[in-house]
């Protein structure tokens, strides 16, 4: 490995011009207060989906899909974790850019990587590192960031991922220096992220992501969205179980209200978080923004009532997107967000339904009006159930006819 430094340096230099133009890879910072964020319940520690120690991990099925790097190898590809190789920092630690090839280890494919180093003094610890290796080691999907390898030497804990050239969705949406994402790109990102969640929820052993937010959605060079940071992921309920009981962990502004109140975690908790991110894509606003007037600081509280009103829903759309979308497309997207953000978890669509609703929006523009798709059966059944309940209560509920339904998951309105 005597020539490793020289060849690796040239490889990094060759891509340096492109890399310098990229957004920094932002690491998620958990915003829920630390006493809630890092305390684990007994169910967290007894979760069979997470290995208890490194020896358990080495014998788990996922260990065959990732490379066990040495600390020396990762020091080599990051130039001893040089400060000018830093891509971002967050609750886990620091992320560095690097480049692996056959000079690092014979047989390795040449590619740029991101190396995440666990902060030894940080609040996110070894167990979240284990969870990340365990879940991403076993799960492979086009909309999940690929875990290439890990390092566990003494008290050093590192993770090696594929390098995502465009960084995080958070940077592209909210950095003033960034050009605003187009409507088409935002809908592409929404669909990719939805497919990632749908895959997790539909896996043989379902997984609840639990920390879905813009900083955890990374973008490839072609704006392919991939979910990252699985440190808070949990195995979903199985069999007769209706939920997973756990301490509340995640990020303020994205966590589902029933999960915050009870600690009962379900796949519908992820659906709520997806609704928040979809709302951020539609509005260009952060989920929580203390710089805005008091009534607009919570994005969900401000925008959700407007999503159900055809006269007001266009008021929430990012003004920078004017002229890029059709009214029907905006209605469909807003209606989808409205249902994802329902206070009643059972009224939220499945992520498979979300994917089905977003797919027709991928080709929409101001001049193209897609043919009205049929509603997912689970949503139709939900309409019928609520209509029956309202009729029993004597309030009456207008069920959307076919034309309304074609515009998306149209809302049930009480007269």
From TrEMBL:
Transmembrane segments: none annotated. Pfam families: PK_Tyr_Ser-Thr. GO terms for biological process: defense response. Residues 81-362 form the Protein kinase domain. PROSITE patterns: PROTEIN_KINASE_ATP, PROTEIN_KINASE_DOM, PROTEIN_KINASE_ST. GO terms for molecular function: ATP binding; protein serine/threonine kinase activity. Its EC number is 2.7.11.1. CDD domains: STKc_IRAK. It comes from the Eukaryota. Coiled coil: none annotated. ATP binds at residue 116. Residues 33-58 are annotated as: Disordered. It is an enzyme of class 2 (transferase). Residues 42-52 have a biased composition (Polar residues). Keywords: ATP-binding, Kinase, Nucleotide-binding, Plant defense, Serine/threonine-protein kinase, Transferase. Belongs to the protein kinase superfamily. This is non-specific serine/threonine protein kinase. It comes from Amborella trichopoda.
